[in-house]
Known about the structure:
Blueprint: E1 17-24, H1 28-39, E2 44-45, E3 50-52, E4 57-59, E5 61-66, E6 71-77, E7 79-87, E8 97-105, E9 115-120, H2 125-136, E10 141-147
Antiparallel strand pairs: 1-9, 1-10, 2-5, 3-4, 5-6, 6-9, 7-8
Amino acid sequence: xxxxxxxxxxxxxxxxxxxxxxxxxxxxxxxxxxxxxxxxxxxxxxxxxxxxxxxxxxxxxxxxxxxxxxxxxxxxxxxxxxxxxxxxxxxxxxxxxxxxxxxxxxxxxxxxxxxxxxxxxxxxxxxxxxxxxxxxxxxxxxxxxxxxxxxxxxxxxxxxx
Length: 161
């Protein structure tokens, strides 16, 4: 009896995208405005935030679909700060709760990054340099740089659809 072997390498090819890390202290809507202005794009906040771990951490996300280039641009926050109440460990007559700020990261390998700009369809290096140079023109942005997606351990967190 003949044995048939199926090779599925081409079918399960990973999605190609460019990932830019952005360091700044701006609010998400201000950064989206600056990127729209300096890159000539139109990022709009999505109605629902990214929700991970059943509401324990949510991340703001902005999106723009470039119909000419058939590319989707996403700006997503890397930091989620949530206030949690827990019982204090002090022995006292009164029950007391203390407020703790818990921080979660979308991509834990890059805890110092505030935002990620994800561009579907891998961008050529000349276009990538142009994008980075225009991002760095904004005076409120401390720095921005490209990230090698193949080195990320938590790249599954960057699947938005």
